[in-house]
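Tip: read the tokens left to right.
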């Protein structure tokens, strides 16, 4: 008999979506989306889109973007971001659950 340990990538049905903190950061001539995971669970991010105040949208990923590991942060480049925006609205699937939230842009 073989045993196997697995990392916790998904939550049980009807469990709440893990709390992630999202920020948009300006620097190095690029805007980056930062996801900070302060939970004990690996969190999957997919279908990430950002809506800007001027009505434009940026698709960061049509499918899987990646994972935010427990007690860690990840960053992804956001292409074609408006230069003067101070906030945006993030739409994403987090562990398969749809999430929409307003995020600020740090300078």
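Filled-in amino acids:
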């Amino acid at each position: 008999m073989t045993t196997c340990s697995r990392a916790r990538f998904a939550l049980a049905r009807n469990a709440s979506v893990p709390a992630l903190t999202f920020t948009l950061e300006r620097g190095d001539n690029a805007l980056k989306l930062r996801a900070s995971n302060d939970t004990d669970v690996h969190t999957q991010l997919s279908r990430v889109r950002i809506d800007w105040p001027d009505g434009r949208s940026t698709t960061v990923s049509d499918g899987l973007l990646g994972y935010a590991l427990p007690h860690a942060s990840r960053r992804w480049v956001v292409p074609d971001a408006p230069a003067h925006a101070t906030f945006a609205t993030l739409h994403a699937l987090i562990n398969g659950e749809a999430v929409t939230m307003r995020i600020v842009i740090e300078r």
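The mean pLDDT is 84. The longest strand covers residues 57-68.
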